[in-house]
Amino acid sequence: MQTLKPEMKTAILQQAKKQFLQLGYERVTMKSIASAVNMSVGNLYRYFENKDRLFEAVVKPAIDGLTHLLNHHEEPDDAEQASAAVIISAVGELLGELLQNVAEELLILVDGSKGTPFEHMPDQLYTALTEHLEKHLVKDGKQKEWPDPSLVSKPVAVGFLQGFFEIARCHRSDPERMRQAAEDYFRIQFNGLQAVF
């Protein structure tokens, strides 16, 4: 029996990422990936049992990064401990690093995951950010000014994330520029929200 080669697995993942990014999940076939890496389809199935598992392996870094960002970002216990500028800078850097490290995988999730268990990931991101904004509106005592935080938090969340995804689309060929654009975008968005909220 032939052993599985790590360099071949890397080549498969790179080619799959390229094809999923260009064509989306539904239009990519195991045959097209196998052909691109000069192997038989049968041999490809030794590395990945099906297209779903291959897709999952490609987007896992983005899912892990998003999950970490949404579930483990730290907020100071005392708002006076950290200035808004420090918090904005830290979150902006995290978002910039996320884009710099997994922009293509993130775009595959957002634009190319139709037909997979991950096709609702953008909606889940919108919901998570909406809930986060609503929590802060209530926590910060803004519910008097905004009786129903969902009226503003959902459109703000969707708009923010769409801008973030657009930065990835526009600048993915230059990771440093993309990271800087993401940090700047976050600062602009946050400062605008701070003025309103």
TrEMBL record:
Key word Transcription regulation present: yes
Domain HTH tetR-type per the UniProt entry, residue ranges: 6-66
Pfam family, one: TetR_N
Coiled coil among keywords: no
Alphabetized UniProt keyword annotations: DNA-binding, Transcription, Transcription regulation
DNA-binding region of this protein: 29-48
InterPro entries: Homeodomain-like_sf (IPR009057), HTH-type_TetR-like_transc_reg (IPR050109), HTH_TetR (IPR001647)
Protein name stated in the entry: TetR/AcrR family transcriptional regulator
Species annotation: Marinicrinis lubricantis
Lineage: Bacteria, Bacillati, Bacillota, Bacilli, Bacillales
